[in-house]
Write a structure and sequence with these properties.
306 residues, mainly alpha, 12 helices, 0% strand
Length: 306
């Protein structure tokens, strides 16, 4: 997917977009401004007509982007359930990941959980954070970028799509039970959501898949949110956004919903998506694809009888 985005012509105004590009890649939306187009009969278009066209174009583009991301959500929701019924395999993978972390001398997740369990209120708070912050925060970010930082929208959207798509592939290929489902004699961890509440898995809402812990998109999306804020803004306060992935990592580990490795893999997927969506790599990918298409066309043409 490229940064050249097929959106209606939207002139950038101070009320609808921030014209400043993201610092590590000068983004272009691929839609030149058309605010000065003449009206029918050669007469200059009125200001009201121009504003009407802009509003209509913005609404149409917003609708197409909403449909696109809605389809991504539905594919992701369906894909996660492909690993339903693989509990034995997922638990076996969980035990293997736990042993691997110990061999790598990673910090013990149980030590983080014990800190939270010192306070009943803290335990409830982290459960609420895990249950209620993840998806609304991602939606809020998308709305914020689309409404006020339109130049950053194509790349932010593409990073989310690419990272989520790769995560879904791993969910399917490597079902993994979270540490809270492993024997307590192995991990010394408890399911804080089930014991103290609330738990996203208690009601069986049909969406949550308990055996898709690898990688952690709680952490992956939180990193994307921080990256977008830091690169889209210029204020010195923008670095406070880093608190989001830090807090999310602490929460998913303390609630025993993810291993450290889940977060590490989630972060690596985001890093890969960010690199792929830079302009230079995208140009190389497009060039290679065009070369492959050209060679295939030449081959098909040479095989036709004269």
């Amino acid at each position: 997917m490229t940064t050249a985005d097929a959106q209606p012509a939207l002139p950038t105004t101070s009320a609808t977009a921030d014209s400043r590009p993201m610092p590590d890649a000068r983004l272009t939306t691929g839609a030149p401004a058309t605010g000065g187009a003449p009206a029918t009969g050669g007469a200059p278009a009125t200001g009201g007509a121009r504003r009407g066209r802009r509003a209509l174009g913005t609404a149409g583009y917003a609708a197409t982007q909403t449909v696109l991301l809605g389809l991504l959500f539905m594919v992701y929701r369906f894909g996660r359930h492909i690993v339903d019924g693989h509990q034995t395999e997922a638990l076996s993978h969980g035990a293997a990941v736990w042993q691997m972390e110990r061999s790598l001398y990673l910090p013990d997740e149980a030590a983080v959980q014990r800190l939270a369990l010192h306070s009943h209120h803290v335990t409830i708070l982290i459960n609420e954070f895990y249950y209620a912050v993840h998806f609304p925060a991602a939606v809020a970010l998308l709305v914020w970028v689309f409404a006020w930082h339109r130049s950053a929208w194509p790349r932010a959207r593409n990073v989310i799509i690419i990272a989520t798509g790769m995560a879904l592939a791993i969910h399917i290929l490597y079902p993994l039970a979270p540490p809270r489902l492993l024997p307590m004699t192995m991990t010394a961890l408890i399911d804080t959501g089930a014991i103290f509440g609330p738990s996203p898995y208690a009601q069986g809402d049909g969406f949550a898949n308990e055996y898709a812990a690898m990688p952690s998109l709680h952490i992956g999306w939180a990193i994307i949110e921080a990256w977008v804020v830091v690169t889209a803004l210029r204020s010195r306060w923008r670095y406070l956004a880093i608190a989001q992935p830090v807090a999310t990592t602490a929460v998913v580990v303390a609630t025993a919903n993810h291993y450290w490795v889940d977060g590490i893999v989630g972060a690596l997927l985001v890093l890969l998506a960010v690199q792929v969506t830079r302009l230079a790599p995208q140009a190389r990918i497009v060039a290679v694809m065009r070369l492959m298409v050209t060679r295939r066309s030449d081959t098909c043409g040479s095989q036709q009888p004269s």
